[in-house]
Design a protein that fits this description.
alpha+beta, 4 helices, 17% helix, 38% strand, elongated
């Protein structure tokens, strides 16, 4: 049985995540929680009836937030003997510091458990919580915010009303049939039986208007 997998933060020079900067940071103690935020941008246009009509403009920035502890008291077994300032310098080189040969901050990748996140540092906040009798900082709580990076190809898929690589929830209108909806979403009617099974349908036609159908991402190769 393998040991405890600790979260690693790896820095990259490029947005294809193929060239590392050579810097990475391994957490001493895994975060107890993390939060993810996704947003959609709308413009508040006035509707014909005088109300507000939130018109879709695009997908906004996603964010990942988590916090963790750095400890230089020696209380954490296997954590090494680095001073807290050295640990913070190592962290800053990984997530925050300017990468000279590309003239910008690094791209960041985190893979831990089910989390697979690509982004760039938005905020790095350090709160010092424990000191030596001489006032030397020995322990700190770090809050890190990453702004999600989504490549252009994926952004274009998100903008499309239909893409076979994304999930869709469609409300059936009068005259809709499962073959026509599958053609719209997947560009093929070959997935009718699978979509019918997922949604518990007994037939491909005569679906009551107002029914919500789930169309999962399915391979079209």
């Amino acid at each position: 049985m393998g040991g405890l997998k600790k979260m690693e933060i790896v820095a990259y020079k490029d947005n294809t995540f193929s060239q590392t900067t050579g810097n990475k940071f391994t957490l001493m103690v895994n975060p107890s929680k993390f939060s993810q935020k996704k947003t959609i941008r709308y413009s508040a246009d006035e509707a014909l009836d005088g109300g507000n009509n939130p018109a879709y403009k695009g997908y906004g920035d996603g964010k990942l937030n988590f916090e963790f502890m750095l400890d230089a008291t020696g209380a954490i077994a296997g954590a090494g003997d680095k001073d807290l300032p050295d640990l913070l310098k190592e962290l800053e080189k990984t997530v925050y510091s300017y990468v000279g040969d590309v003239h910008e901050p690094p791209y960041i990748k985190i893979i831990w458990g089910t989390l697979d996140y690509q982004g760039r540092a938005g905020n790095l906040e350090v709160e010092y919580t424990f000191f030596s009798p001489e006032g030397k900082p020995l322990r700190a709580n770090v809050k890190l915010e990453l702004l999600q990076y989504i490549d252009k190809k994926t952004q274009e898929k998100l903008k499309k009303k239909s893409s076979p690589d994304l999930s869709h929830l469609i409300t059936v209108k009068a005259g809709d049939t499962l073959p026509t909806l599958c053609q719209e979403v997947y560009g093929s009617t070959a997935y009718c039986a699978e979509v019918a099974r997922i949604n518990g349908l007994t037939g491909l036609r005569n679906i009551a208007p107002g029914t919500e159908l789930f169309f999962p991402p399915l391979s079209t190769n």
